[in-house]
């Protein structure tokens, strides 16, 4: 009888600990520092993607980064980490502590999501997902490239990739083609 009680108590404790771990995601600092350490070891850069569970464009961005045609290209050059921000009131527990402050620190406030930051292994900011001044202009839209889908967004995104990676022109063309699928107009 005692062993059954002990087993029940052990299971309850395990379930509580698992549940608590699910409710408390890692902080933005923990995620960023882990990604930076890995990038430094592997001689890569870090892409931090700010996203939320409700964000359809964030899901498209993830699908584009992990597509069979692009995944190895990104993994060869970047450590990709996600930070959850801007969740609805009922899902605030999904947010990473400090993520919104990091988003705002690097100019992402009121830019929308997905919003990207690219760092080197020493935490130097190399690029963000804002359009490049005097290179690519989005007429009548905000500065954030978001999940690239238009010609201008894709050109700006691949320019940033070219500047922060060892991707060659052929590899950038493969990435561009995949991101073109994010815009229904491009699929006609």
Q: How are the SSEs ordered, and which strands pair?
A:
Blueprint: H1 2-23, H2 28-42, E1 45-51, H3 56-66, H4 71-77, E2 78-84, H5 99-105, E3 115-119, E4 125-128, H6 151-164, H7 169-180
Helix pairs in contact: 6-7
Report on this structure:
47% of the residues lie in helices and 12% in strands. The chain has a single domain (25-187), classed as Glutaredoxin. A hairpin with a 5-residue loop joins strand 3 (115-119) and strand 4. The chain has a four-stranded mixed β-sheet with strand order 2-1-3-4, sandwiched between helices. The longest helix is centred in the N-terminal third of the chain and has 22 residues, at 2-23. Helix 6 packs antiparallel against helix 7. The protein is globular and about 40 Å long. The protein has helices spanning 2-23, 28-42, 56-66, 71-77, 99-105, 151-164, 169-180; strands spanning 45-51, 78-84, 115-119, 125-128. The chain has seven helices and four strands; from the N terminus they run ααβααβαββαα. With 188 residues, it is α+β, with helices and mostly antiparallel strands.
CATH superfamily: Glutaredoxin
Distance between the termini: 69 Å
**Major β-sheet, in short?**
4 strands, mixed
> Mean pLDDT, rounded to whole units?
85
Helix content: 40-55%
Residue runs with pLDDT of under 50 for 5 or more positions: 6-10, 16-21
**CATH class annotation:** Alpha Beta
